[in-house]
Amino acid sequence: MSVAEQSIAGAEARGHGFLASSVGRKIVMAASGIVLFGFVTVHMIGNTQAYMGAESFNGYAKFLHSMLHGGGIWIFRAVLLLATGLHVWSATTLTLDNLAARPVGYRAQQNVASTWASRTMRWSGVILAVFIVFHLLHLTTGQAHPAFDHANPYANFVSGFKVPAAAAFYIVAQLCLGLHMWHGVWSFTQTLGLSHPRYESLRRNFATGLTLLVVGVNISYPVAVITGFIH
Ligand code: HEM
To answer: Most buried residue, 43, 49, 100, 136, by most Cβ within 10 Å?
Structure first.
């Protein structure tokens, strides 16, 4: 059976329709990716309050928890959870389909660049998933924090990054986020049909600029605590 026939057989085995097709799941992956990248960008901007001091940062955290009488953060968490679930589901099923359609692998004519990029997406995605679980236990619920104080997010931020291993893990995770975001922004602009040669440099500059901004500012937080700039 040819590769194309095997892909079609795989889609048929799962049933027909938008979500059974690889194009449909790529659109789901792109749309959920846009929501997640939007969140990461807004989160990075919100955290700049740490540079304004304890009062600003804690005031910002309080605002997030009191939006719509406390319901706002739960709506936001539900959207984020749904986007994460759809993103992981579409990525995993597309990866499994790809592996099933190519049991022996190509030889010399394989497109090395795109394979490297997609492999990078897989392991950077897995490291990001581990990071998100750790991050929630560290700065939201406190089980992975040495001195968590529910009433003082700023103190949690500072004492959390004073632990070198935690700061180092944040930095490594942000580098993975950078790889994932760069290729992800590049891919979703293509999935959305913006791969015309006229937009090529715009897409590249957008992906590079957004990634460098988010990763650079995010890495600055643990670095600012370790160097004593934020204390
Ligand atoms: C160095 C970079 C980062 C810092 C300093 C940081 C800081 C924080 C802090 C302080 C909170 C707790 C807010 C509160 O409860 O008041 C938080 C929550 C959260 N962060 Fe981050 N964050 C960083 C990067 C990231 C990244 C890269 C992601 C996702 C890929 C992320 C996802 C989340 C999520 C999902 C929450 C929970 C929001 C909620 O309460 O539902 N963070 N972050």
So the answer is: 49
Tens of pLDDT, residues 80-133: 999 999 999 999 999 888 888 765 555 544 554 556 767 788 899 999 999 999
Compute the CA torsion angle 17, 22, 23, 29 (nearest 10 deg).
Answer: 110
Token code pair at residue 121: 């997406």
pLDDT in tens, 35-71: 999 999 999 999 999 999 999 999 999 999 999 999 9
Please determine, for residue 146, whether its predicted confidence score (pLDDT) is greater than 80.
yes
CB 208 near ligand 1, within 6 Å: no
101: CB partners within 8 A, 6+ apart: 3, 6, 7, 10
**Nearest protein CA to atom 36 of ligand 1, as residue:** 136
CB 157 within 8 Å of CB 50: yes
Count Cα neighbours of 220 within 13 Å in the Cβ-side half-sphere.
15
Query: Measured from the CA of 60, which atom of ligand 1 is nearest?
Result: 16
Domains present along the chain, CATH in parentheses: 3-226 (1.20.1300)
Helices (H), the chain: 3-14, 22-47, 54-66, 72-101, 112-135, 153-161, 164-191, 200-226
196, exposed or middle or buried, with CB in 10 Å at 0-12, 13-18, 19+? exposed
Decide whether any atom of ligand 1 lies within 6 Å of the 139 Cβ: yes
Are the beta carbons of 45 and 200 closer than 8 angstroms? Answer: no
